[in-house]
Design goal:
2 domains, single chain, 198 residues
Length: 198
Amino acid sequence: MIGAIICFCGACLMQMLVYPIFTSGTVLVQFGTGTMDVSQARLVEEYVPLTQLGPCLAFMTMVGQLSTLVGLISAEWIPDDNDVVALKENESWRLVQGLQLIVFVIILIYLLTLVRYDSPKFYVTQKQDEQAKKVIRKIYKTDGAHGNEDQILGEIKSLSSVDSNDVGIKDAFFTDEKYRRSSWIAILLSASVWLCGY
């Protein structure tokens, strides 16, 4: 959610043809994309049923490659670098930048409307087993089969790391030395990949 909001703000700034504002928007989008890149695997792991994890990860990889293809095709709308006059007059770059704005709006709507509950793993770490079972019912569609819910809950508990249960965003990025460096390195590495034009 935080990454999508950062990207949305950056994409809005990128619609302004003032170099410092446009550049700031670009950096925000890349940083937000890096944040989402780092967190999306955990999001999928915590919300997608284990039986659908493989197809979901394959789909994510395909969408990533498809977005790269769309980016390459959209470059055809922009005039050649050597044609200075056409570059000044042509505003097709707004459409190219607008595509990402549309994607970030869709992501925000999705996160605000469809994912309206925390993951079962979160409730397990908060020792709220009944709430975790309710979410398991929604995700796994167990239709109240308690044996099934208990089994899934047991699997989630066995996969949860006791050491990292109480680590929040503030701990991961600022206060806990065990996680701070790795959290920032992961996001900066991912953001730098996007800044390089991958």
